[in-house]
Amino acid sequence: MIELRNLVKRYGSHLAVDHLNLTIEEGKIYGFLGPNGAGKSTTMNMMTGYLSPTEGEIIINGHDILEEPEEAKRCIGYLPEQPPVYMDMTVTEYLNFCAGLKEIPKDKRAAQIESVVHMTRLDGVEGRLIHNLSKGYRQRVGLAQAILGFPPIIILDEPTVGLDPKQIIEIRDLIRQLSEKHTVILSSHILSEVQEICGQIIIISHGKLIANDSADHLEAHLKGAAVLRLVPQADAEDTEDLLHTVSNVSIQELTENDDGTTTALVEMEPGTDPRADIFFAFARAKKPILEMTVQTVSLEEVFLELTEGDTAPAPKKAETAPAPEPGWEPEEESEEGGTD
After folding, report:
1. Which of 37, 54, 155, 184 could form a disulfide with 314 if both were Cys (CB 3.0 to 4.6 A apart)?
2. Are 13 and 7 in contact (CB under 8 A)?
3. Alpha-carbon span 49 to 60, nearest angstrom
């Protein structure tokens, strides 16, 4: 659906995106991660046509975004981090305006607007001025315009910012629903959110691609041999003796606890699962195991490991998309009449 070939973006002497090569396949939810200043928003802005690359090619559904910009952009729905909404319009007026920009046929606009309003839970506020909506509802309006026209590719930059927990759950469910017919690219600083809903993880650092794989594969690659944590009701000496009777394990650490138990960390040989053997060894010795869990590497640990040392911030311009129209500027939430 999207192919980036040797993509480069420079701001003076600063290299924001460094010869990036990436392929986005159809029908997946991609989590797009990277430290602040790593080039995430710059890359997304180039994919959507907001910014032009210094070098390289961007192919959107078979269309070069520089040679066929209208055809390429027609394939994309985009929600920037700051929703490009017009405060003096009602929700319906704004979505009608967006439908016109997207060249949706007039006889189909009302039905499509009704559909996206329902999908984003905007029912009941269609006639209200966007200025009088809360930040969370403005975010929903921005999401509705991204979905409008039902393009094959949906790109969402921090889509759950400003939403309450109930709204976050609803938007996550909507993203899963969209992935049934669309390719979704999601940028978020909430790693648990990315891990929960994204099938593929893309991580960039210093403008370079450093990972493009499933979360499970990334975790498995980093953690190496699996580690088993068990807490038997036995002292450290008995625990060590019993573990030595089990094949395919090696003891990493033993800690004797004050309550008569021992906490043991045991490395398991790759491709083996000796948990049943461990259980029966301790059961025969009448030393019950109170806890036994396989330790895993979290996405946070994967992210920190892969981006270690990436602390240099990029210039603000590199991570900020241009305003959608001259004269538009974000406004504060209204104290009166805001919708929560």
Report:
1. 37
2. no
3. 10
Written as six digits, the tokens of 131 are: 């200025």
Q: What is the pLDDT of residue 83?
A: 85
Is 0.85 surpassed by the pTM of this model? Answer: no
Identify the pLDDT of residue 332. Answer: 45
How far, in Å, CA of 177 to CA of 238, rounded? 53
Are the C-beta atoms of residues 147 and 98 closer than 8 Å to each other?
Answer: no
> Do β-strands 63-64 and 55-60 pair in parallel, antiparallel, or remain unpaired?
antiparallel
Whether 2 and 63 have beta carbons less than 8 Å apart is answered as: no
The CA distance from 146 to 156, in Å, is 8
Task: List the one residue out of 32, 21, 15, 11 whose CA is nearest residue 59.
Answer: 21
What is the rounded CA–CA span in Å between residue 144 and residue 78?
A: 10
Cβ atoms < 10 Å from Cβ of 335: 6
- Tell me 333's DSSP state: P
Phi/psi of residue 157, each to 5°?
-100, 105
Any alpha helices (H) in 102-150, and if so which ranges? 106-119, 135-147
As a whole number of angstroms, the distance between CA 3 and CA 40 comes to: 16
pLDDT of 63 reads 93
| Exposed e or buried b per residue across 199-220, where buried means at least 16 C-beta atoms within 10 angstroms of its C-beta | ebbbbbbbbbbebbeebeebbe
CA 104 to chain centre: 29
Q: What is the pLDDT of residues 296-312, one digit of tens each?
A: 666 666 667 667 655 44
